[in-house]
């Protein structure tokens, strides 16, 4: 049983990573393309308007085009984890906290997260370009192009500004605020959901813990935290992506038709100017362009969780099923002396003793 639980825990971790990063990546690609398409007529606030765009994109491009930028996205995630690990080793900043941690320790932990976002900011910008650029109008990037372009953008701090591309120090603040805010919201929602789910299970489940009650609440809590954080930070993300993409000469797929490409040409001066321009030119709904893709992403994630729960229940029932009892053969008694096969002997009746 312990070995089964160990493999189940590993499976849960792999399934969570796959659902969060790999399987949801096509929806992230569509969402980001809609967010940075400033001249689009269709806002794709619901999933239904995206189906036609997906159909034509599939006809004109390969299906694998929806996974463009996946390697660079995973690289940025790895750099974030690696940078936090290194900083926590050379500084007293804690890498993990609990609900019993002091306010000072929580603040130090958030500072560590912020420093990690500072390190990965230029590489996140280059990964964003790989995610949204059309494969029709550009070549597929190499494996290490994300790192090279990130270093080039970092070197641009010491060079004069000759394009509309914003210097990295101008987008560094919004990116750190976005990353830290997303982490705080998702962590709070995840903790609240996990406590609520474990409380609802009651003492009955704690007496006979099943795989569903052990692992499934964590999956639901992670799903809830990411969903609420994505919804709350969606307008912030829209503004941030437009700032990071400005001046990069990126050409994206036309999200209105899915049959052509459009260049990204914007002139935002900073975060506040970009936010005001979106409200004036595109309306408040312009901050939520591509929200329908987010709905598709979490609908698919919810379906994966449902399948996972069914598998957990099946494994639990299999472990609880009673095993058939195999009767143990009784040892045969030795035959009495003078016994011959085929003869019957009357039972021995003891005679009373006479006194």
From TrEMBL:
Places the protein is found: Mitochondrion outer membrane
Protein topology in the membrane: Multi-pass membrane protein
Composition bias type Pro residues, residue spans: 324-337
Any one GO BP annotation for this protein: mitochondrial membrane fission
One Pfam family per UniProt: Mito_carr
Alphabetical keyword list: Membrane, Mitochondrion, Mitochondrion outer membrane, Repeat, Transmembrane, Transmembrane helix, Transport
Protein name, entry field: Solute carrier family 25 member 46
Organism in which the protein naturally occurs: Capitella teleta
